[in-house]
Predict the 3D structure of the following.
Amino acid sequence: MVARSRGAGSREQGREIRSRGQGEKCPVPNPQSPIPNYHGTKPVNENQAMLTLIKDLATKLAPRLIEIRRHIHSHPELSGQEYQTAAFVAGVLSSSGLRVQEGVGKTGVVGELQVTEENHSFLAIRTDMDALPIQERTGLEYASRTDGIMHACGHDIHTTVGLGAAMVLSQMTEELSGNVRFLFQPAEEIAQGASWMVADGAIKDVSAILGIHVFPSIPAGSIGVRYGALTAAADDLEILIIGESGHGARPHEAIDAIWIASQVITSLQQAISRTQNPLRPVVLTIGKITGGRAPNVIADKVQLLGTVRSLHPETRAQLPNWIERIVANVCHSYGARYQVNYRQGVPGVYNDYALTQLFQSAGEEAWTSDRVQVLPEPSLGAEDFSVYLEHIPGSMFRLGVGYPERIINHPLHHPEFEVDESAIVTGVVTMAYAACKYLRG
């Protein structure tokens, strides 16, 4: 990784937190070997003691974690511009005794907690840092101070949970049996940050990766796990319809690109229900239409921009040709020309079974089974966490952040999106305990 490094023991908020001695030497499981069943691989009393320590540390850190979250929330930064956030994250990590590298994946940060020199393998914990171009309307006293930018997808919570897990684990290195690498990723919202991190070597020597995403429909204090497909592949679509301009009163002398574009949109939506396997979902949304110059002039060109979501790789592979055939048939019928530009974005997140089982068992031991939801269906949203999963096994869990007493918890990407901050400790404990269970085998 190319980056600037910070040594352990630098100061954050005038306090110095020194790293403790190294723990016992036990290698991280080889990613090529079967990952063990994480239910009960260690004596119950041993796991319980470790869990109790994690909960105690997280509870003591809770006021500081809320301060961290509110600071990040108040100072949101767009994708690829997370300079202040990255510097703040690096300071917290360094103060907790981690080896820190900045400038990884452009504006990303990596913190390493290396407790054994004999084993160079790491478990990675990934969180994202970027915000959205949304004007916040929550009215919170710690609302965004930057006009038109808001943490409306919970990345402030993700970053705080990652920092909290690092702060907790750095205080219990004697109980750890392996190394942990914390990835604070930029630019998730534009689906590029994970690729930047991978290109800079962020997952070199990583055997597995764990992730988190908030979910407002799950109440705070609970988590959700999903076996298999968690999110969809997301691709970008551009269609250009090229007709011939003419007078609005003489349509027979022109080729109306706007009308033909409407036929293309309708045909695509109808064809999905008749030609795609209903058990393999496809969503095609045209979100932007641009065309025309005047009310009484027939448009000669229309641009359609959209997104295509799918869950199955086989379906995804045939979508570009399927779309082009439909566009071609419509355009040829009315004498228009066309261009179809299809760009594959990120693949879907497909959670590793054993690592999802790890999250489920960690959550049930920490919070009881009543507070762990096994999610019955995936989301057609997208997450570039999937980029890491093209290289190493991993799993992402859903952190409940909804207020249990509220009738309405606003969804992600909403200007009034809020979170119940009690979820932060839930996330820190779940992530830290899952990491410990993985490292101990």
Remarks:
- Residues 233-346 form a domain with the Alpha-Beta Plaits fold (CATH 3.30.70.360).
- The first strand starts at residue 4 and ends at 6.
- Residues 276 and 282 are 8 Å apart (CA to CA).
